Amino acid sequence: MLRFVVRRLLLIVLTLTVVSFGTFMLFFAAPSDPARILCGTRCQPAQIEAVRDGLGLDRPIMTQYVEYMGGIFAGRTLGEGDWAKDCSAPCFGYSYTQNQEVSEIVARALPVSASVAIGAWIIQTLISVSSGVIAARKRGTAVDRGTIAATLIGGALPIYFVGPMLLLIFRYQLEILPQPSYTPLLDDPLAFAGGMIMPWATLAIVGFAFDARLSRSQMLETLDEDFIRTSRAKGLKDRVVFWRHALRASATPLATSAGLGLGGLLGGAVVTESIFGLNGLGKLSLDAITARNLPIVMATVLIAATFVVFGTFIVDMLYAAIDPRVRLS
Amino acid sequence: MSTVTTGTPYLEVEDLKVHFKTEDGIVKAVDGVSFSVERGKTLGIVGESGSGKSVTSLTLLGLHNMRATTVTGRASVGGTDVVAAPHSTVQKMRGKDMAMIFQDPLTALHPYYSIGRQIVEAYRIHHKVSKEVALKRAVEMLDRVGIPEPQRRVKQYPHEFSGGMRQRAMIAMALVNDPDLIIADEPTTALDVTVQAQILDLLGDLQKEFNSAIIMITHDLGVITQIADDVLVMYGGRAVEKGTVEQVLRKPHHPYTWGLLNSVPSLHGDASEDLKPIPGNPPSLLNVPSGCAFHPRCAHAMLGGDGPCAKIRPELEVVQGLKNHTVACHLSEAVRATISDEVIEKVDA
Ligand SMILES: Nc1ncnc2c1ncn2[C@@H]1O[C@H](COP(=O)(O)OP(=O)(O)OP(=O)(O)O)[C@@H](O)[C@H]1O
Ligand code: SF4
Ligand SMILES: [Mg+2]
């Protein structure tokens, strides 16, 4: 088990190195000139040259990359001479347009996105897995058909329809929900949940269909397995066969799908944030891309990648915990 | 265990029919089969793939696919007609009155539960005992079926067992409640020959010990010779020949049985050039041939003119006054007796 964990962690390091290097190359090989953007529109060529020198943008890309990565773990001094700036770990660079360290900007946006994505993920997983499994148990009944219909509708609705609809109905028509906003969970749990409920509901409505259908078909597939027939042949009640043997056997694929769903929710969170006017990573990265604010784009890509990679890691660990065959190999 | 060995058989099946309604039509998987098995006896059921062997046995335990399925006839297990009995009654009989051993022990055991846990669960369905007591019983059973180091093995998962050991574990689980009727559906097909012989020996020993009735489903006449007392030969969802092993394998009276015997590699001698598989394919159960279902493949079929083989379905009839040997064929008894001798002579050569 320990070797298994170590192997997965090494794989994570490798993946993140590749992703970070790739992104770095991509942005710095891009035709836009970071020094020009940083300097502002009224800069003279000589001034731009000075900025480039000061930031070390004229040095080989490899050197810059190593310094950048080093800064994340150990902090660094950005630029030279007049431009010199102390940036403590984790240093993702400095945003000259906002006159702030990137890490500070990101630290403000990250909890917002994490709250939207993780909260929606928990709600979505609970709803989708339980409705799918119950539909399988009640196969062919009205409950089953109702669930299938709901997934068809939910799966067809886009976020930018559901979000505004919820806002319209619950905020403006019925006036029972507050305007979505971010309050730190520990400051005021109620305000936190109240402010998040519409983004969560939006993502859950749009996203539950996939996992619900998967859970249903997964359960039905498991019910056709030989070992399910064996457990019935032993004399177990159908109820026990379903809720113990079949559910246990379906747990692995369901956990995998749910875990991977977290990555997908990040994408949805970006759109949802902009609909509800929340200042999360989504809005941050969109704004940064428009403004060609490279340090911020770079930081958000890295954070998103880390999120996805660790999500997969957690799924793998879950896998090992519930599947004796994985655990041993 | 009850000591009744004569009188009413433990299992009595009468005119059992299992029809599946499908999009393409009605699949008559089992179409009027009758047989019985006494305690302490083994009935072998042979037939090609798709002849309805598994459906017959699954129906007895109520494990067949219930969707769009019609089951008629009577199947009395220890006095209870499982065809007519409510679902809950049949469910309570499973494991105790009748148990099943499946073909592929890898897919038939739950991959995520230890062997011990699966046996403990099976035992506690029918015995109100603590997990510790049940675990002791599981270890005992593993020991009984010849699994070495049962104390350690009981904690392992199916994938940690070899094929033969897995099938032993499956047998231990099926027998943990001393079932009166054991149905083994090709229990050795997935195993190699030596292991196969060991498993059959084990089943034979356990049967003596527990005095249970056994149904052994197989493709393999060798298995029948080794373990069965009686044989039922199935073709296209029906019984075509029935009798003791001695009668059916030494004095076969049905052309299909002849075909089966001819296609078995001889145990003594190198008669591989004489090996003749039955020509053609098993019939589609959606559209069983008229008259005798075997007629399109039968070398002796009487088809032209007044020939009855494609027109009239032969019923099982007693052979040569031997009351328990029956056969369904239009050939005259004298003709069958002559050919039978020739076939056996060739098989023995
Ligand atoms: N639920 C079902 N619906 C429709 N047809 C079915 C169903 N179950 C079984 N059958 C059909 O019934 C026939 C008999 O199947 P069965 O499994 O009893 O054959 P078998 O004699 O056990 O063959 P094998 O030796 O391959 O195990 C097959 O043609 C099969 O396709
Ligand atoms: S009834 Fe006719 S076709 Fe059928 S087995 Fe006998 S001889 Fe062959
Ligand atoms: Mg079968």
Describe this structure in words.
The complex is a heterodimer of chains A (329) and B (349). Chain A is mainly alpha-helical and 329 residues long. Helix content of chain A is 77%, strand content 3%. Chain A contains 13 helices and four strands. In chain A, helix 5 (102-137) packs across helix 8. Chain A is globular. The termini of chain A are close together. The mean pLDDT of chain A is 84. Chain B folds into two domains: 11-228, Rossmann fold, CATH 3.40.50; 245-348, no CATH class. In chain B, helix 4 (115-126) crosses helix 5 (131-144) and helix 4 (115-126) runs parallel beside helix 7. The longest helix of chain B is centred in the middle third of the chain and has 18 residues, at 193-210. In chain B, strand 9 and strand 10 (238-244) form a beta hairpin. Chain B has helices spanning 53-61, 87-93, 105-108, 115-126, 131-144, 150-153, 163-175, 193-210, 221-227, 245-250, 255-262, 333-348, and strands spanning 11-22, 25-37, 42-46, 69-77, 80-81, 98-101, 181-185, 213-218, 230-235, 238-244, 317-319, 322-327. Chain B contains twelve helices and twelve strands. Chains A and B meet through helix 9, helix 10 and helix 13 of A and helix 2, helix 4 and helix 7 of B. The complex binds adenosine-5'-triphosphate, iron/sulfur cluster and magnesium ion. Adenosine-5'-triphosphate is lined by residues 20, 22, 27, 29, 47, 49-55, 65, 219, 285 of chain B.
